[in-house]
User: Which sequence fits this backbone?
């Protein structure tokens, strides 16, 4: 499926949801305030050498104190929905036991303020900030963490109740498991492939248990969701059987390890076989895979770029005594190959056709499943011009072309309900700290002043009209 650049304008459905997204640790700051506990990202970012320039989320966008102004920006942008995450340690400092009324009140007030402005709250319960006390007990490698997560989710369903439009359990379990436990780039910074696979399973289980808990509290009215960063893996040589086999293996460990249990109630047999040299999978207990699946109203998709793999005899065989840090966790004879540009400031390639391909293929595999693009966006080397504006034409065209690709997927039959630009604000970009800016609104980290970039003005027009202009007709 090729998403050719549109030559005509594209009208999106009447009820299509236009939103923007953030995450708690990336924007809130106030790390030591309001009774918040310590998360693995506090620990990780405060450890020398883990983040660019030693940046931490201690202050971030100071959203904890400036939430009212931020809600006003969302309102002025005319967005239908706002996707944010709840910091688990802010509402339950130790990850189990006592809840923190002050933390819950913060989110309750935020939700009321959004609703008062007609903005739908789309909540993510876990965007990577695990309470440190749970990590001390093994984190996501510990099965008990999945059960603790379900109790936290249950409490949020009780306290925030029917005010929440979409309940997203987890953001990108791939990142939480593989970047956190296999390659060490994210908190908690572990490098152990079996730990990463164990974490992946416990995250799947956590979704299933939490989804059931929310359903028990709120009944059929609750919209349950999870957000996945699925990988569009292209073969280095599309005519090579071996490269296609490499794609199958990468797809199993990157995508189907989540899609299988979450949507089909079973782990793919080929995945279990591929990695049998590494693990006996005994952390998956009988009945678990079915437990991971709960009926989902929405499947959230975060899409940024595409990848390429090839068959490479010997790849993935790590010599005794060396540490395996590949995110192709345990996969043998497969290696990633460089993808042609253009690239964003993250070094990720810009390829809108992957968006269409992913949404259309999900629709083909899971025909009844409603989809939502819960993140898409780009970091570029933004600068403030002499006129005080940020003329981020590169971001406008990135957003335009990817939204166009979403439109192409809808045209091809995919049931895509909405699109959320990542991100509302420049923010703490994980191990890249404040060096990479994804916002449609610029944040001056000295003054905390928010300035709309051209992309924000452009996105406001789109949200107001639901008409995506032709590429040749972009104005702002
Ligand atoms: C999301 O992660 C996060 O949900 C969000 O918090 C974050 O700020 C945002 O994206 C921007 O990073 O390494 O060249 O193979 C996205 C994570 C991005 C990880 C694409 C895998 C593949 C590019 N993914 N990446 S490459």
Assistant:
């Amino acid at each position: 499926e090729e998403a050719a650049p549109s030559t005509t304008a594209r009208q999106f459905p009447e009820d299509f949801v236009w939103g923007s997204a953030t995450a708690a640790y990336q924007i809130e700051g106030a790390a030591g305030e309001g009774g918040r506990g310590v998360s693995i990202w506090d620990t990780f970012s405060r450890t020398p050498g883990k983040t660019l320039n030693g940046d931490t989320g201690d202050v971030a966008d100071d959203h904890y104190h400036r939430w009212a102004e931020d809600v006003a920006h969302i309102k002025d942008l005319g967005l239908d929905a706002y996707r944010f995450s709840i910091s688990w340690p802010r509402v339950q400092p130790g990850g189990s036991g006592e809840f923190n009324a002050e933390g819950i009140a913060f989110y309750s007030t935020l939700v009321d303020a959004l609703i008062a402005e007609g903005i739908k709250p789309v909540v993510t319960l876990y965007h990577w900030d695990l309470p440190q006390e749970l990590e001390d007990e093994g984190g996501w490698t510990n099965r008990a963490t999945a059960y603790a997560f379900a109790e936290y989710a249950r409490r949020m369903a009780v306290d925030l109740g029917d005010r929440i439009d979409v309940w997203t359990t987890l953001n990108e379990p791939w990142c939480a498991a593989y970047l956190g436990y296999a390659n060490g780039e994210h908190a908690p910074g572990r490098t152990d492939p079996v730990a990463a696979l164990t974490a992946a399973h416990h995250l799947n289980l956590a979704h299933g248990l939490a989804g059931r808990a929310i359903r028990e509290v709120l009944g059929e009215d609750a919209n349950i969701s999870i957000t996945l960063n699925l990988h569009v893996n292209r073969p280095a040589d599309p005519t090579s059987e071996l490269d296609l086999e490499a794609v199958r293996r990468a797809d199993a460990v990157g995508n189907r390890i989540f899609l299988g249990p979450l949507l089909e109630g079973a782990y793919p047999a080929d995945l279990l076989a591929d990695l049998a040299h590494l693990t006996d999978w005994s952390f998956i207990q009988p009945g678990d895979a079915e437990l991971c699946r709960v009926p989902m109203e929405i499947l959230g998709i975060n899409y940024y770029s595409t990848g390429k793999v090839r068959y490479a005899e010997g790849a993935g065989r790590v010599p005794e005594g060396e540490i395996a840090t590949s995110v192709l966790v345990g996969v043998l004879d497969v290696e990633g190959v460089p993808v042609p540009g253009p690239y964003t400031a993250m070094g990720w390639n810009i390829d809108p056709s992957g968006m269409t391909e992913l949404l259309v293929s999900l629709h083909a595999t899971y025909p009844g499943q409603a989809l939502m693009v819960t993140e898409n966006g780009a970091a570029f080397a933004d600068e403030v011009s002499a006129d005080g504006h940020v003329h981020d034409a590169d971001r406008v065209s990135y957003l335009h072309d990817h939204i166009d690709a979403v439109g192409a997927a809808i045209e091809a039959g995919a049931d895509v309900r909405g699109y959320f630009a990542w991100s509302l604000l420049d923010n703490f970009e994980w191990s890249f700290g404040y060096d990479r800016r994804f916002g449609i609104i610029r944040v001056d980290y000295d003054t905390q002043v928010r300035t709309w970039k051209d992309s924000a003005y452009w996105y406001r027009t789109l949200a107001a009209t639901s008409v995506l202009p032709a590429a040749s007709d972009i104005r702002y």
User: Anything to note?
Assistant: The chain has a mean pLDDT of 97. Residues 69 and 160 are 22 Å apart (CA to CA). Residues 23, 26, 171-172, 175, 229, 302, 304-305, 307, 348, 375, 422, 429, 438 surround GBH (CB under 6 Å). The longest helix spans residues 193-218.
